[in-house]
């Protein structure tokens, strides 16, 4: 392990990925004190109400500079596969390359968080601008009965995914289900690229546990993108029945997305405005953690339907809730639900209103059951910490890259600005 740390200290790493999804920031937090130099190019979801981004540079653990970026977004778009989203990705790519060629030093390792980001790294590698590319794959999509454009986009994305795998030096899959899906649907055998399973984790600094007297005893918490696959319709639809047994019930919704107006309309139609608080998107993570840690249950009820790819993903919500001390009510779509059931860190249900109501009532109305879930969180938390997860992933990666680890650090990188071209003449 000591040898590995020395190797990392001699390397400069560039991480590119979407912000506020926990993957990019967690990698940033883990790497900034372990590598010689670190750049992070982060951008918001194309469906954010207001686009934002940043380019951050670290030397060892010290932040040297951070430049805010303006990212094009499509907040009124009713899906994730429309032409406007493609335009957003294209404009973000242009901004990335403009930033990259002004970096003061050359990164040796590029880590792309998700397919789109990794494409940028592979293009850089083909022009000898980086040495190695890691593809951190977060999910996998299968065709459905959805709109023809959505299916066409999914087929195209899977072909890009295959190209990215072929051209990456290492593949990190966030769950084992992704590799199985590629084998079954795309006929890509695991042994052809030998991925490492690297689940989502969080840094230790997030952990907190509030005593009962500091919590809102009857409050449910939700954080995430307000989209059709997140199950907020089920939650809001269940509130009138929950209010019959728990009049003090409250729901805090933290986040933004295309379903924002639809959810607000449902709240009015069900007459539950008095027990729903819309916080919207909150930029400050600490404020999000503070709000959630005052709740009593964290909600993660994916639909498991045709537009939901959580079956192949490792969503961050349940692990964040656990580290903040919240028992979890989760549907059985994502793989992590199996661990939650095994550790009794909450309730695993099918996507059904009655099942949801029963799960919430069982936990909130029984101090004994609530105590059992809080005890179960202690076991589940061991699956949620990033340090151990990334230690194992980087160790295995460096072992496979023996030739690369013996290579000295790259020389100073002056970029490809017009002034540099003139100097070479």
Describe it for me?
The chain has two domains: 2-203 and 386-424, Rossmann fold (3-Layer(aba) Sandwich); 204-383, Glycogen Phosphorylase B (Rossmann fold, 3-Layer(aba) Sandwich), CATH 3.40.50.2000. The chain is 42% helix and 17% strand. It has helices spanning 2-9, 23-31, 83-100, 115-126, 148-167, 176-186, 232-245, 260-270, 285-293, 317-323, 336-343, 353-364, 367-380, 386-400, 402-405, 418-424, and strands at 12-18, 37-43, 53-59, 62-69, 109-113, 132-137, 170-173, 196-197, 219-223, 250-254, 276-280, 297-300, 328-331, 346-349.
Summarize the structure.
This protein has 425 residues and is of the alpha/beta class.
- Kindly provide the name of the CATH class of the largest domain: Alpha Beta
Please, how many helices? 16
The largest sheet is:
8 strands, mixed
Number of domains: 2
User: What structural class do the secondary elements suggest?
Assistant: alpha/beta
- Shape label: globular
Helicity range: 40-55%
Low confidence ranges = 77-81, 408-425
Mean pLDDT: 87
C-alpha termini separation: 46 Å
The CATH homologous superfamily of the largest domain is called Glycogen Phosphorylase B
Rounded to an integer in angstroms, the radius of gyration calculated over CA atoms is 22 Å
Stated plainly, the CATH topology of the largest domain is called: Rossmann fold
> Biggest sheet: strands side by side, in what order?
4-3-2-1-5-6-7-8
Portion in strands: 15-25%
Along the chain, the helix and strand elements come as HEHEEEHEHEHEHEEHEHEHEHEHEHHHHH
Oligomeric state as shown: single chain
Name of the CATH architecture of the largest domain: 3-Layer(aba) Sandwich
Q: How many beta-strand runs?
A: 14
